[in-house]
Specification:
Elements lengths: L3 E7 L2 E9 L4 E3 L2 E2 H4 L3 H13 L6 E8 L3 H19 L4 H7 L29
């Protein structure tokens, strides 16, 4: 099997992954998954598509992550892994889509406007 690559985005995080058959080793920015994502819930988010399809120990995954926070990065990796699994086998598409792993979450941070404290919060209005 050749190397399959995919891209995942969430907020300002971008995940580029390279998947090939192997023993289930996941490397993030040249670090182990457990080392990079210290919290158990973040590792759970990353492995969700593999767990759903029962393919957790079948692939070696190399991940390049840029930008965003730790949670956005984990969700970007989840999307990239789901897209790679669909590239491998089209039959994987329906269960992944049903769980919502193939949908790119479009929510981004709204920009701060001039003359305001934040994006929507305004300075206190004084009549006099």
């Amino acid at each position: 099997m050749e190397v399959i690559n995919a891209l995942g985005r969430r907020k300002s995080a971008i995940a580029r992954i390279y998947v090939k058959e192997g023993k289930g080793q996941i490397t993030v920015n040249d670090r182990e998954l457990d080392n990079y994502f210290a919290e158990e819930r973040l590792r759970y988010i990353v492995k969700q598509p593999l767990t759903l399809l029962d393919k957790e120990g079948n692939f070696d995954i190399k991940i390049n992550l840029v930008g965003g926070g730790i949670k956005g990065q984990a969700e970007a990796v989840r999307l990239a892994i789901a897209r790679a699994l669909v590239k491998m086998d089209e039959e994987n598409k329906t269960p992944l889509k049903k769980q919502g792993f193939l949908t790119r979450d479009p929510r981004e941070v709204e920009r701060k406007k001039p003359g305001q404290k934040k994006a929507r919060k305004r300075f206190q209005f004084s009549k006099r």
